[in-house]
Amino acid sequence: MINKRLYSNIALSILSILVLSFPIYLLIKTKSSFNNTSTEAEFVGRETCKECHTKEYADYIGSHHDKAMEEANDSTVLGNFNNQELISKGLTHRMYKRNGLFYVFTDGDDGQMKEFEIKYTFGFTPLQQYLVEFDKGRLQTLALTWNTLEKKWYHMADEIYKNQIVNHNNWLHWTNQAQNWNSMCADCHSTNLVKGYDLEKDEYHTTYSEIDVSCEACHGPGSEHMKWSKQQNNPTDKKNNYGLIVKTSGINNKQYVDNCVRCHSRRTALTDFTHASTSIYDHVIPNLPDEPNWHIDGQIKEEDYVYGSFTQSKMYMKDVQCNDCHNVHSGKLLYTDNRLCLQCHQSETYDTPKHHFHKEKGAQGEAVISDSNIRFEVGSGTECINCHMHGQLYMGVDYRRDHSFRIPRPDLSITNGTPNACTQCHAQKSNQWAAEKVESWFGKSKRFQYGEAFYAAKNKNNAAINQLKNISNNELYPPTIRALAIQNLGNFFPNSITTDIDGYLGNANPTLRLAAAMTIQINSVEDLNKLLPLLKDETKAIRIESVRILSTLNKDLIPSEYKANYDKAYLEYFEVLRYNADFPIGKFNLANAYYNK
Ligand code: HEC
Ligand code: HEC
Ligand code: HEC
Ligand code: HEC
Ligand code: HEC
Ligand code: HEC
Ligand code: HEC
Ligand code: HEC
Questions:
Q1: Does residue 380 have its Cβ closer than 6 Å to ligand 8?
Q2: Numbers of helices and strands, H then E, in the chain
Q3: Tens digit of pLDDT for each residue in 471-515?
Q4: Residue 123 lies in domain
Q5: Is 189's C-beta closer than 6 angstroms to any atom of ligand 1?
Q6: What is the number of domains present in the chain?
Q7: 413, 442, 471: which is the final residue of a domain?
Q8: Does a structural domain hold residue 470?
């Protein structure tokens, strides 16, 4: 057993784990789709690509990626600035134009009503937001938002924080950190973003090569490719990927999806992104699809984007990827009806009342009003995505669909309190009603859903132990779900599982390694010895997680053969803390780390 001296700082460090803890959670493999040869390549801009790639360029122009952020002018601003007013929680906000510039009159950082000039647009449809310049290089996102579908203004706080007054002292107020573009939004909406936070001066020098999500956000800096393409005879040079850093052809679907993860996931960023990195775990840690941000069975709840959902699906495990449904350049769907799914699923089996039991469009019947207050007409009950990809409104008006492609389970809603597509649509009906209908159509479901195990675990039901072990050991389950099973074992049954979990510390899949590392609590020299090898892990996320845990101990306990690795990982850990120190919580964690040091 380790003696007490070891724990001199433990109280504080536990606090830091609870409070910050980068959700040092997991992610997915990362056999890199990046090829790290040409780190010196430079960004050249989309106009350079146009001449040779007319089709991709034409598809891309006008896409949401293209419109992710723009300088405010008459062609980019969608909102009505013709002397408009919006009354919200007792304040009258005004939107207007003067000399060709766009302004709002709204509550500022001292609570006083003031004029602010709009510099940038953010987003395109179904909503558009606006950015205002502040001191110290900051841009802030206005709460006054334009609904592009209904063409009207709304106040974001009214939609999202319905029961709270968000005044200028609240961190959610548009002038405060939660709505700060540099730290909260920028790296997903622009190309080659460098946050440039200066900790000592508490100011930003944020830069990007292109304002929106452009060609090189996905393909990487193009200068080497330009050189290659100008060579005489243009030898087909697949081996060096034509001078491109990122591979987008000849890769498997896991690698494909990894190319989107840094922006399409709920995650913690460890550093600015660089295309030369070989693992997603070197720059982000996507959250596992767990409570409180997801429902306990992995259905979407908070703003989860797509990755955590898609990577738990059977389709992801069976090699389906984004471009099976989306044109990645235009962002549009390949088909906007059931043909999208019938590319792979048999129409005779599924596109029939024998499967969906609903009436076709045009038949007699009554529309249904859903839990999001959306009216679904007769016929909508025959659409695959309405049952297998139900959605939810975000930011007030943005209906986003769950990419976990699951089977609706009203029976599990009754036992585990999770939602299901049937009663999300039939908001007036009970789960009991839906469960009985489904049972009458298909018989009682015998399918095991992993949410059942997570629910049992959180209720400390011992039956969960074997279920969780089966999930974590079964390679047919997605890595994120196996990782969640490991963490549930570690969190809820710490005494029964150590040996099972230890086996994952050396697993080839970093998602599982990281999950296992996170369950370790140091109670003995044995525990210490398990963590030490992870100081040399090939991914930054795991190195810093192990050093974070080890740094709560007295440094003398680190064996000399690990000291160099420890010091190196420790520096990396500090870099990550400094990178995130623009958040109040980040400063707190940095302070804790200094204290432990
Ligand atoms: C002077 C012409 C030229 C320009 C300019 C150009 N490319 Fe290419 N690009 C090519 C050629 C030729 C190929 C190889 C096509 C083939 O063999 O199918 C190619 C292939 C590609 C591929 C496919 C790689 C693969 O794995 O199949 C991508 C992606 C690409 N270019 C992106 C870009 C981007 C992004 C830009 C702008 C930064 C750009 N290109 C500018 C000529 C050009
Ligand atoms: C640099 C960040 C970034 C990367 C990388 C990225 N996206 Fe996006 N994506 C965005 C943002 C931001 C939006 C929303 C833009 C908006 O509406 O303002 C978006 C929107 C989309 C949409 C919705 C388009 C629509 O019409 O509604 C699709 C589909 C999409 N992305 C697919 C992908 C795929 C597939 C990949 C990987 C191959 C990818 N994206 C990579 C940032 C990114
Ligand atoms: C993790 C990456 C990420 C971050 C951080 C991020 N966004 Fe986005 N944003 C996206 C993606 C991806 C979409 C596409 C919609 C989706 O995923 O359904 C999007 C869409 C949008 C849209 C357009 C709505 C739409 O669907 O067309 C707006 C407006 C927006 N984001 C504003 C913001 C603001 C403001 C912030 C910061 C407070 C922010 N975003 C932070 C990735 C991000
Ligand atoms: C959101 C990420 C993203 C953006 C932005 C993007 N691409 Fe692509 N591109 C991809 C992916 C992923 C592929 C792989 C094929 C696919 O998904 O259709 C691809 C494929 C290509 C190809 C090869 C096409 C083929 O059929 O072999 C070219 C060329 C290309 N992109 C050029 C461009 C150019 C030029 C731009 C900007 C105008 C651009 N891309 C913007 C992700 C992106
Ligand atoms: C590129 C091929 C492809 C496309 C397109 C596709 N699927 Fe699938 N789907 C699969 C494969 C493969 C499986 C796994 C089958 C298996 O393992 O039994 C699957 C499984 C499913 C499942 C069963 C999930 C479970 O947990 O048992 C559902 C539901 C589903 N798909 C719905 C859809 C819907 C809805 C669409 C259209 C939006 C769609 N699929 C489009 C290939 C596809
Ligand atoms: C009204 C809701 C509803 C609609 C619409 C619907 N499904 Fe389903 N689907 C279900 C239910 C419920 C199950 C589970 C059936 C069971 O337990 O055997 C299911 C199961 C599935 C499965 C898994 C089959 C298996 O045995 O693993 C696939 C694949 C699937 N559906 C595809 C589709 C496709 C493709 C469409 C559109 C053509 C579609 N579904 C439309 C409700 C629906
Ligand atoms: C099996 C088909 C399918 C696959 C695979 C798929 N999507 Fe989608 N996606 C859809 C459908 C259907 C919509 C809903 C479009 C709508 O509501 O108009 C959608 C919507 C989106 C949106 C818009 C906002 C939202 O959340 O509804 C984004 C962003 C997106 N997908 C990104 C991705 C990314 C990234 C991948 C790969 C990791 C991916 N999709 C894979 C079918 C698919
Ligand atoms: C897109 C929203 C939507 C979803 C999801 C949906 N339904 Fe429906 N449902 C409708 C609409 C619209 C009607 C009325 C037209 C009809 O009968 O098809 C309806 C009708 C019905 C009816 C017959 C009328 C009644 O009220 O008795 C039953 C039963 C039913 N749905 C059960 C289900 C079950 C069970 C599920 C889940 C497997 C489900 N629905 C999913 C929209 C939906």
A1: yes
A2: 27, 18
A3: 999 999 999 999 999 999 999 998 776 778 888 999 999 999 999
A4: 69-189
A5: no
A6: 2
A7: 442
A8: no
